[in-house]
Design brief:
By secondary structure, the protein is mainly alpha-helical. Helices cover 41% and strands 5% of the residues. It contains eight helices and two strands; from the N terminus they run αααααααββα. The protein has a two-stranded antiparallel sheet. β1 and β2 form a beta hairpin. α6 crosses α7. The protein is elongated and about 60 Å long. The two termini are 34 Å apart.
């Protein structure tokens, strides 16, 4: 799960914003594996944290609203780490292009892709085309899934191997905490623990 190697840092940063420097930045990516880890972490955030069952619909909603944070620290984090230089457009374009894949920027027809895409704004696609390919590896250019993004898989399919324990906090805040031994099973363990809560 090398693509998901930054997922633990996301949890740490959300718990302690002072640890934000542990998260990858697009400018630090050099190898294909770096770009895969960078974008797979964002895909993980969309599915596991934001609960977007459709990344295309979630991103369309967020873009339509001007990518505002809506008082959500996670959306602030996404804007800061995954859209500080407009690079989120490449993941959005990947999600919105439907079944079309492009190897080279010159293959992109804004009219054609807008006609088959959930995001039907031709001007948005023209603007995107003018940007061209800005990074050696990105989610859009290079084929149908050039970074082999396995959307929302981080932690979803593994059964807990070690012990997981959860407890509820006293008081009226309705808070609970889960501790797991291995990262790859936290989502399954959380679902199991959540089913026991009142």
């Amino acid at each position: 799960m090398i693509q998901h190697r930054h997922c633990p840092e996301v949890h740490q940063t959300l718990a302690n914003p002072d640890l934000i420097d542990r998260l990858p930045r697009i400018g630090q990516c050099r190898r294909l594996e770096d770009f895969q880890g960078y974008w797979a972490t964002h895909s993980y955030l969309m599915g596991e944290f934001l609960g977007w069952t459709s990344p295309a619909a979630g991103l369309a909603w967020w873009y339509a609203g001007g990518k505002q944070a809506h008082s959500d620290p996670l959306l602030d984090l996404i804007k800061l780490i995954w859209d500080d230089d407009g690079q989120l457009d490449y993941l959005a374009a990947h999600c919105w292009r439907g079944t079309a894949g492009f190897l080279h920027p010159e293959e992109l027809s804004p009219e054609k892709i807008a006609a088959t895409s959930p995001w039907s704004d031709e001007n948005r696609w023209r603007t995107f085309k003018r940007q061209g390919r800005r990074f050696p590896h990105d989610p859009f250019y290079g084929g149908p899934n050039p970074l082999h993004l396995d959307l929302f898989s981080c932690g979803r399919s593994d059964l807990p191997e070690g012990s997981a324990r959860g407890f509820t906090h006293p008081g009226t805040a309705r808070r609970a905490t889960l501790f797991v031994e291995d990262f790859s099973s936290w989502c399954v363990a959380l679902e199991q623990f959540g089913n026991t809560l009142p």
